[in-house]
């Protein structure tokens, strides 16, 4: 039962974990230092925007097919 569940969600899990791995390893995103909720949200939003721009450039440069 657990093996079937893991097989179903593994494709989704790997996509998400690769994003977090890239942010942590390449962008030093494992820690967040800011005072206040609004600044923390802004920092997270800018990190996500930066990741998306880098990923977009990579997809275009390598002519990759997206998963959808």
TrEMBL record:
GO biological process per UniProt: DNA transposition
Biological source species: Pseudolactococcus chungangensis CAU 28 = DSM 22330
Record InterPro entries: Transposase_11
Taxonomy, superkingdom: Bacteria
A molecular function GO annotation: transposase activity
Phylogenetic classification of the source organism: Bacteria, Bacillati, Bacillota, Bacilli, Lactobacillales
Domain spans labelled Transposase IS4-like: 5-53
Protein name, entry field: Transposase DDE domain-containing protein
């Amino acid at each position: 039962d657990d093996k079937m569940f893991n097989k179903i969600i593994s494709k989704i899990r790997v996509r998400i974990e690769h994003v977090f791995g890239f942010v942590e390893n390449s962008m030093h995103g494992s820690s967040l230092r800011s005072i206040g909720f609004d600044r923390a949200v802004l920092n997270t939003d800018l990190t996500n925007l930066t990741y998306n721009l880098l990923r977009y450039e990579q997809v275009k440069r390598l002519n990759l097919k997206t998963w959808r």
